[in-house]
Amino acid sequence: MSKEKTSPIEQLLEIMEKLRDPKNGCPWDIEQTFKTIAPYTIEEAYEVAEAIAEEDMVELKSELGDLMFQVVFYTQMAKEEGHFDFNDVVQAIADKMIARHPHVFGVKSIVDAEAQTIAWEEMKAEERKRAAEKKGRPLSVLDNVAHTLPALTRAIKLQNRAARVGFDWPDTAPVFDKIKEELEELRAEIVANDNPDRIAEEYGDFLFVVANLGRHIGVEPETILAQTNRKFTRRFHYIEERLRENNKSPETSSLEEMDHYWNEAKKTEKETL
Asked: Does the pTM exceed 0.70?
């Protein structure tokens, strides 16, 4: 009887185990730890997001594989230390998804997406409560908003949590007032120019309230800023291209010349919309 064919995920798990083999594995993979791998995981997640933003399905398939490999890497290290293995991780998320969707896997009825969001948050709140009790401390509204999130994303999550208990402005008008207030405070510190820490603090306050405006108008600051970064990159590439046509470079050009091509790039983009 022929041996049953190994599934792709089984093959990947075997590859990871061999890479971590103390005698015959890869020296780099062997010396890695949870902490050393974490930055790569964040990088891979961003590369997944970039492939999605570029609508590149071929690249997305590749980047998702890279991200999955990170999960396999962690589970192999955990298995070696006797904590859990890949199957435990899969089972845990399967159990969590079933528990959080009783309207799909149970008898509870949820009428629409808004009701589902409310139910989801209630279940997550209950999970946070149990986690706080397990640690023997009071529950906070802001519990489990990861410190390792990108700062703009974390700002929105913190603000959303506070808003759920009524700590929020009712509309955008007071947000604009707060932006003006924070900008003036930042300007005053910059003019005084006698305390770099205060300038940095006021700049942080300004960014925080600008992020809050994004939340109120329904845009995700991290996503929108990423789009703006791509737009800046695209337009600056246009400047470089036009300069090369004239045997020049940014280093040998004036700000006025580069600004002219920047405005030209903006005009060209608007005409193609």
From this structure: no
